[in-house]
Amino acid sequence: MNDVALIVRTIVAWLVTLLLVFPLFWLFITAFKTELQAIQIPPLIFFTPTLENFKEVEVRSDYLHYAMNSIITSVVSTVLGLLVAAPAAYSMAFFRTRWTRDVLMWMLSTKMMPAVGALVPVYIMAQTANLLDTRSVLIIVFTLSNLPIMVWMLYSHFKDIPPEILEAARMDGATIWGEFRHVVLPLGVGGLSSTGLLCLVLSWNEAFWALNLSSAQAGTLATLIASYSSPEGLFWAKLSAASLLAIAPIVVFGWFSQKQLVQGLTFGAVK
Amino acid sequence: MSRVLPRSLMAPAVVSLFLWMIVPLCMTLYFSMVHYNLMQPGEHTFAGLENFRYFVTDPDFGASILNTIWLLGAVILITVVLGVLLALLVNAPFPGRAVVRLLLISPFFVMPTANALLWKHMMMNPIYGIFAQVSEAFGLVPIDWLSDYPLLSVIIMVAWQWLPFACLIFITSLQSLDMEQIEAARMDGANALQRFWFLILPHLGRAIAVVIMIEMIFLLSIFAEIFTTTGGGPGNASTNVAFLIFKEALMNFDVGVASAGALFAVVLANIAAIFLIRLIGKNLD
Q1: What is the overall mean pLDDT for chain A?
Q2: How confident is the model at residue A232 (pLDDT cuts 50, 70, 90)?
């Protein structure tokens, strides 16, 4: 009886999973087809793979330029975010005042503001400052919109460091910088890295601001992919190759840090 | 010293977030009450509540509200129901469980524009798409998903992306479930359905509430999927509030009306936010 249940469970679980990831599998193999094979009826599963599309994507749509924008905007906004968020989280976790809770809640509430609510003002400000379609404006916006999540994640990690250790360091005459450098940083490195990871993923995949504030100059991979949306023309193989190059790094990234990433998004409400 | 330093450590984060919140909000408030079109430079004359009236009486407005609610409701329903079932399925050990979990989470990390185009072209294309091919194999007439069922198509794309998120949260929550209690209930003769209904579901309650509210926040302003696939159409069939505001602002260049709409979206989001903040606040200490 139990054996049968196990076999049924295994088969059902695998079937459902394969069905769910089928679109990704299809994207993956289409990237290695020729354009004609990509739209062949019935759909082709076995074929001689070609790397032509990847070359074409680079030549025709300047893939590396967009990839560079994605890398720069997401890495810089992550580092910037950590530099601003870590001291704040440290201060809130170890120097609690009666306002700490309210400040945290208020920060959370800024994340609840729909991005579209700020679209017009941010667009006009960027236009006035001549920052439209620059990496700078994307970096600023990505950093600010991720900041609340970063403070929250770091705060909940720092809070797990026993205060007694800090007491002991202070007794031994550590300065606040020494305390941060030698105690909090080594113990909080897990929190810092998972916070950084989440921020990287969110910035890499960010599409709303990227689509509205950037185009050819500072556009990220999300905007490059969006430019493949024209209704006519069948260039699925190239679209697949471009998409694959854009999502593969972050999906693999996600596999290694799925738990922290998803928990970070819940603001620690599910443990 | 003990007060100044902690505060100055917090200052950059607090000040920048405060500006990020208050400056756009004030500007939006101001814009919403003046005549301001990006294509017609000049004085911003006072408009009173005219922009609000214009936005609210726009025939697209009612449709966009309904579409927003449909999108939100359908995706939440699909992800929660399937997410719970899926989490229960992969929670118990079976061969390859670790691999299955890795594969399952993948769609969540796909950027929205890639997700949307993958579905639009390779899955839902009425001639060459996989869906069309499968229905023809069964002798059915292929459906032109994006033209005939635009909103449903967007729902499918978004649900595909958020199902893994919901599932992973439920798996996390299931891990803190007291298995001995379940076993005891089984010994006492509770069948699988009863165990699910009276023990597992209440345990998941909190996780379900969190998933619903996080999804509400993100799904209220779904944009990239609509932008890259249907463009809000045909007509207004897949225009949600976020997309309508975008259209007013960057396609009609009407800053005033777009700002009035933005204030509306903020109010809508805040209704969802209040519940989430209270829930998270409860277990802060």
Answers
A1: 84
A2: low
CB A240 within 8 A of CB A38: yes
Residues of A in contact with B20 (CB under 8 A): 110, 144-145, 147
What is the H or E stretch that residue B37 is in?
A: strand B34-37
| Mean pLDDT calculated for residue range B249-278 | 81
Rounded CA gap, A111 and B162, in Å? 19
Structural domains present in chain B: 32-282 (1.10.3720.10)
Q: What are residue B36's phi and psi, to 5 degrees?
A: -150, 110
The number of distinct structural domains making up chain A is 1
Per the DSSP assignment, residues forming a β-bridge with B34 are: B46
Q: Is residue A38 part of a domain?
A: no
DSSP label at residue B124:
T
Indicate yes or no: CB of B111 within 8 angstroms of CB of A148: no
Residue A71 domain flag: yes
Scanning B125-154 for CB atoms below 8 A from A yields 127-128, 130, 133, 137
Cα A79 to Cα B73: distance, rounded to the nearest angstrom: 36
Are B232 and B246 contacting, i.e. CB atoms less than 8 angstroms apart? no
Token pair 């929250």: residue = A152
Across the interface, do B262 and A24 touch by the CB < 8 Å criterion?
no
Q: What share of chain A is helix, strand, coil (3-state, %, to 5)?
A: 75, 0, 25
Question: Residue A103 belongs to what domain range?
Answer: 63-233+245-265
B104-117 mean pLDDT: 90
Q: Does B176 touch chain A (CB under 8 A)?
A: yes
Of B95, B206, B280, the CB nearest to A10: B95
Determine the angle formed by the axes of helices A2-30 and B97-105, rounding to 10 degrees.
Answer: 40
Task: Provide the 8-state DSSP code for A49.
Answer: -
Instruction: Check if the beta carbon of residue B110 is closer than 8 Å to that of residue A251.
Output: yes
- ipTM higher than the 0.95 cut: no
Position A216 in a domain: yes
For residue B115, give every residue at least 6 positions away whose Cβ sits within 8 Å of its Cβ, in sequence order, or none. B107, B157, B160, B161, B225
Report the DSSP pairing between strands B34-37 and B40-46.
antiparallel
Q: Is B36 helix (H, G, I), strand (E, B) or coil?
A: strand
Is the pTM for the entire model greater than 0.95? no
Q: How many CB contacts within 8 angstroms connect chain A with chain B? A: 284
Q: Is there a contact between B172 and A12 if contact means CB atoms under 8 Å apart? A: no
* Residues B223 and B265: beta-carbon distance below 8 Å: no
Beta bridge partners of B45: B35
Residue A80 maps to a domain: yes
CB A267 within 8 A of CB A64: no
User: What's the CATH code of the domain at A128?
Assistant: 1.10.3720.10
* HSE of A181, CA atoms in CB hemisphere, 13 A: 5
B73-92: per-residue pLDDT in tens?
A: 999 999 999 999 999 988 88
Residue among B7, B109, B284 minimizing CB distance to A250: B109
